[in-house]
Amino acid sequence: MIRMAIKKMTDWLVANGAIDEEETDLYEYAIYSFVFLVAPFALTLIFGVCMGVTLQALVMVTPFVIIRKYSGGYHAGSLRICVICSCMLLLIFTSVLKYAKSALLIDFVSLISGIIIMFLSPVDSENKKLALSDKNKYKKISMILVVITWLMCILMKLIQLEEYEMALGMGLTLTAVLMIPCLFVDK
User: Fold this and answer.
1) What is the Cβ-side half-sphere exposure of residue 180, based on CA atoms within 13 angstroms?
2) Which among 3, 17, 51, 177 could bridge 98 via Cys, Cβ 3.0 to 4.6 Å?
3) Which domain holds residue 99?
4) What does the mean pLDDT of the chain come to?
5) How far apart are CA 152 and CA 53, in angstroms?
């Protein structure tokens, strides 16, 4: 369904002279990439608004989207499974933000999650195998992003914004949760 909609968009761009027909594949890929960059924010925004934790939810999904770009992680075999699993995970994690009472527990889990990310990253994707030089680069970037997220958590704690400290930590945990299945998948 998404691929069909993107195809119709690029066909419309070609028909209206906005792009050349030879560029169709490039534009389809660009639109597809944009949709999947924005999708976690859109879903999290919806869940956050419904639960009254909009800003915290968006703070949670931000480190997830940024770190996952470099750390990699599990990718579902089909778009339908991806959407269902993504919705479930984002709903669960947004619910934890809404109902969590213990920042200390989330701090501990986010510390472990950051270590998992540093240890496992980057996870190769079937669609994008990484060269050794890219793996080293992505690992370093993932580690730096985890440390930056931890430092932001500390800052939030120091300025007494615990709900954002927990949100940042949950973003690390969401990233780690999607890396762990890769340990059990044949490569």
Assistant:
1) 11
2) 51
3) 2-184
4) 89
5) 19
Grouping H, G, I as helix, E, B as strand and the rest as coil, residue 179 is coil
Q: Are 157 and 106 in contact (CB under 8 A)?
A: no
Length of the chain (residues)? 187
Distance separating alpha carbons of residues 187 and 185, to the nearest angstrom: 6
pTM metric for this prediction: 0.84
Exposed, middle or buried by CB within 10 Å (0-12, 13-18, 19+), for 175? Answer: buried
Name the range with the highest mean pLDDT among 53-67, 72-86, 97-111, 118-132: 53-67
DSSP state of 32: H
Ranking 85-89, 132-136, 153-157, 182-186 by mean pLDDT, the lowest is 182-186
DSSP conformational letter for 76: -
